[in-house]
Specification:
The protein has a domain of 214 residues: Vaccinia Virus protein VP39 (Rossmann fold, 3-Layer(aba) Sandwich), CATH 3.40.50.150. It contains nine helices and nine strands. Helix 3 links the parallel strand 1 and strand 2.
């Protein structure tokens, strides 16, 4: 989106719902995002066998970052960019556990970046000169030169991006030859999903989230010149809320991840094989997740809804 194309009233490049939610409303203050990780986590089958704690929630959110970083890796010794870094705690985790030469967290919202600097005061000071930086920028207009990064990743931010084509082009521009990109975000499993999603979830109705299909991103990545862009998704129903039809903990086969969402009644299993069609739920919206072996989960902001999330990645 160019300056001339930007809608009136958006001189900062943000839709009103994004500006409010990540500014004055401060989504990071919501208890479900305790620990500063503004994502819905990467859950294991055993998580449903007992009451969940705040520590469980934080671990699941950290595990989602680890899963994405493992997907985009190897990270060690490289120049790494997180697009939509929020409070920057995922960047701090990457710095501590994955040892990049430098990590850059980029976010469009200045108030988020102010919070990120406060949340990471010690890490920013101890990381060493230039190893951890926080920069303001939009996914569609990244303030970096060409071929600056070995790895680019994004965790549950792409549902806010205005223009996936522009994001894909920018990601391709800032990546070095042989670089890798991984994206984890919400995607609709059905082309008819936007209207029912808007009726079920205020985040889609008010413009905070944009309903897209996985192919919208993978096709954009391919058109931008990124090779091997692919989305993998499969789903099958679990038991009623509070129970699960997923395999028991410890039964994961090599190269295969299984996960359930607490209380969602939805479960998905992903593999490295071609995607299968998501199993439809009673709303006609499949439970799905994309990105190698990421897992499906239910959107928890707004009113309760059937699982509609997906993950996507590119190599």
């Amino acid at each position: 989106m160019t300056e001339r194309e930007r809608p009136r009233g958006r001189t900062d490049g943000m839709r009103p719902a994004v500006r409010e939610t990540y500014g004055p409303a401060d989504l990071s203050a919501v208890p479900v995002f305790a620990g500063g990780f503004i994502n819905f986590g990467y859950w294991q089958p055993g998580d449903l066998g007992r009451p969940l704690t705040v520590a469980d929630r934080i671990r699941s959110q950290q595990d989602l970052y680890r899963h994405v970083l493992d997907t985009v890796g190897p990270v060690e010794g490289g120049e790494v960019l997180e697009v939509g870094c929020g409070l920057g705690v995922g960047c701090a985790l990457a710095l501590e556990e994955y040892a990049p030469a430098r990590i850059t967290g980029m976010d469009i919202h200045p108030q988020q970046l102010e919070r990120a600097r406060r949340a990471n005061t010690r890490t920013l000071a101890s990381a060493g000169p230039g190893r951890f930086r926080l920069v303001r920028g939009a996914a569609e207009r990244m303030p970096f030169g060409e071929a600056e990064f070995d790895r680019v990743y994004s965790v549950e931010a792409a549902q806010h991006f205005d223009d996936l084509e522009a994001f894909a082009a920018e990601a391709a521009r800032v990546l070095r030859p042989g670089g890798r990109l991984a994206v984890a975000s919400f995607f609709a499993a059905d082309p008819a999903a936007p209207e029912p999603l808007a009726a079920l979830l205020t985040t889609f109705a008010d413009g905070l989230d944009i309903a897209r299909q996985p192919a919208d991103l993978t096709d954009a990545l391919t058109r931008a010149g990124l090779g091997g862009a692919r989305a993998e998704s499969s789903a099958r129903p679990c038991g009623p809320a509070g129970t699960t039809g997923c395999p028991p903990s410890g039964s994961r086969a090599p190269g295969r991840g299984t996960s359930c969402t607490p209380g969602s009644g939805g479960c998905s299993t992903t593999t490295s094989s071609p995607p299968s069609a998501p199993a439809p739920d009673r709303y006609g919206l499949g439970s799905s997740r994309v990105s190698f072996d990421c897992q499906g989960h239910q959107v928890e902001r707004g009113r309760s809804a059937p699982p509609t999330s997906s993950r996507c990645s590119s190599t």
